[in-house]
Specification:
The radius of gyration is 28 Å and the shape is globular. It starts with 18 loop residues before the first strand and ends in a 51-residue tail after the last helix. With 629 residues, the chain is an alpha+beta fold. About 1% of the residues have low confidence. A hairpin with a 5-residue loop joins strand 6 and strand 7. The longest helix has 21 residues. It is built from 18 helices and 21 strands.
Amino acid sequence: MKYPIRRAQLISPFGTGAMSISKNGTSAVCSGLDHWFKNRHGNMDSTDLSQYKIKEWRLERMLGVSHFRLPPDFRTKGNDDNDMNRFLTVPFLRFPKWHYCSFCGQMQELEYHQKNKELCKGCEQKGYKNFIFQVPFVAMCEKGHLQDFPWREWVHKEKNTSCKKTMYLMSTGGEALTSMQVKCECGVKPRMLHSITSVDEDGKTELSRSLCDDGSEFFCQGKRPWLGTDEGEECGCHLRATLRSASNVYFAQVRSAIYIPGNSNKQIVDLLSFFEQSQVLRIINLANRANLSLDETVKELKEHFLLELNQYSDSDIRRALLAMEARDANKDDDEEQPLDMEALLREEEYEVLNGEINQEDLKINPVSLDIYKSDIFDVSRYFSNIHLVEKLKETRVLAGFNRVFNDQSTDIEVMKSMLWRNQPNDLTEDWLPAYVVYGEGIFFNFNEGVVREWEQKIQVTDRTQPLILRYRNLVTNRRTREKKITPRFIMAHTFAHLLINQLVFECGYSSSSLRERLYVSDNASNPMCGVLIYTAAGDSDGTMGGLVRMGKPGYLEAVIQKAFNNAGWCSADPVCTEIGLQGPNSCNLAACHSCSLIPETACEEFNHFLDRGLVVPLHGVDPLTSLFN
């Protein structure tokens, strides 16, 4: 199979372990990283990896790899006289392997490497020429394994059947599963496919429960066809049947970072060592007992140790103090817990976005809030600063993937291991695929005093409590990754969606070209409440300064006011406002496709945790509930 896929698509949505369909209709799964960067002879003798390596030190630190690589591009000519990097491809393997004839129903199993379409053998014997097509069903589990639907086991009702006779996938009329059946030439009773996709709330499936006739359960076989092998690993999960085109078959786990200048990782390590000295530790302990803020503690340290700390910036000292606090908090635990590297990454970006920078890959210009026209919208009341990001660089990395649920609490090392058949032992050769995009944006930093006063109101806590309880119940039943949901998080997230939807109309952006990046934390020592709305795409959409222009005085006030006016009444109201929990997994309040939802690729939370009532006053809702009232 030969068909083009853009390099960015090999990160998401067609990365390792994902299925895609070629022009001739063949479904194939992207191979493991072991086979990338090899030429048509299967070796790397003519590959110069230096042309593909990219560096992003903060993501390398978070994901535990030495470097990242751009997906290979196909070249018929080399860039130099050595003809290096010619004919590099990313292999795709045929999956599912089971096929059937739509005319007679006969089933046939092909190999992963089969390229061409095959004719039905049963029809050929009768003088007909009909092609066979891949079956519409596959099976998967919550741990990310994928396999062909167990056709033989299902029809024979046995785990280890010895029958090798020809099977048939037939339809008795209609398109529902109740009208489809599997039968075998051995004479066993045909079996219908009804209820094979049924799943209980606790994750148990009808397929695993009812496949065997003896009452035993049939579990996932731990197969990973994207690695080119039928060998399985031990897995005790229930097996789920699904359409191979279903949206929950593959969720790429993409980790991204905005470029910030410098590499402060070494500085933080050096500062942590310096803080271990007794005289320094005494000052830090006294500051903690006096309940000094983080900035006050930094000031005290610089007054006492000006010579030693003169080479470090205030932001480096703050980050080192936060790392020290997190490390000390974990000392009392029975099992040492790692630092939340994702949170540390956001804190670093938040601090940089609040400053002024003019570098090649990052240009940030602050705007005085006094210039904005308060008669249209009082910007200075709700925001402490607004910065125009004229240029930014974002690195997006494929760290792994999930199946069934996008937000599972899967360990990063486990996800990385799913990408390899033989994971490199040498840490210097441990890499992940990534690509770099450039764009622009507007950074909003909310007024911390206003937000803190608002989120303590009883109307706000009462409004958000049902959504928080719903998410806790979801975490318990689905084993999803737990995160802290707060009123400020829901408010900032909804604000970003409302503004993106308005900018799409104002500027003519495509609905998926704008993205959000949330910086929210209610940590008393280092609170955050900021939103970056930006465009970072592989094409030219949004790179001409249009988004930055809409953030300038004279434009932004009207955009925000229009967004809030539109949000005050949804075309689905009063249902949208009064229905309560709604949307994906019932994790939204007053938010639907008509007012607040955006493409899932543009949202960090897959359109969860939204509520217009926390942003603007709604009919029938206490006005004190909204921040912008």
